[in-house]
Write the structure tokens for this entry.
Amino acid sequence: MKVYCVLSFAMLLGGCSSNHLVYVQEVSMGLNVSAGLGGTEKISLGYDRDVFAIVPKKDGVASDNPDQDAMSLVTMNKATIESLTKMRVTEFVAAGAPADVIADESDTLTSIREKVYEN
Amino acid sequence: MKIVSGCSCNPTNLASCVCLLMFLSSCSLNSYQVPFNSVQSLELENGEKLAATNSLGFHLYTKGGVGFQLGKIQRQLLYPGITDTGTECLKGIGSSNEKADEVRIEADTEKSPSRISVLRYGVGVDVSFSGIRMILGMNHRNESRTDLRLSSSSYYRSGGELNLDEACSVIKKRGKTK
């Protein structure tokens, strides 16, 4: 019962709304132990990297195609890790109309890739 | 009075008060350090604002879940600039793409960072709507958020730790045309 109270409180504070597109890049070095509500447990020791995006679907009432993603997303990233304290991250993220435009233009995608990986 | 940091503090004693002050200055709650606020802010080319905090000690946070961190924690919040196209970050990359449409900019983004970077060293525990997590060592999390009513583009390059080399983040209001 106490656990459910804590989780409910966390959900309230976390503001778990679906009106944002979220893109996450996470790097861990050391011990990382997690247990998800969906039955996803994870233990990692050493280097671990996760990259994921949460893209909400279109509103089923307002849209003719409710299974369609609510927004496009284009990202490119590079992480260089030399030590615990020396880490370089280069990242490009576009969401919505700019992502639609970029996805249609191979030259722009090439420019972004060259910029992200230039060093 | 026993304090967690290991000092024995008595308010009537000057040394104890100094000890208490040192303990408090190494704590933070949601990036607000006690008694000093260590937030540094910087305004960038397209009107972006960058807020950074850097603190050592014991930290409690209640945003995006509940958790604590014992050790070092650095946060960097990037608030986007508002532009007509939302594609200004492509200019620095070499694209001439500027498909400006007829959209009036009205977004209030002062309270909504487009990018949140958190670098943590030490031991930390998080409880959020997605589960429970314990980290021992280093963890670096970069989170980009875009409101579904907006469009955005951002480019970010950091050096060691969270030392910023280059950052660009702009948004464009979507929806009705003027």
Q: What stands out?
A: Chain A touches chain B through 59 residues (CB under 8 Å). The longest strand of chain A covers residues 20-36. Residues 76 and 92 of chain A are 5 Å apart (CA to CA).
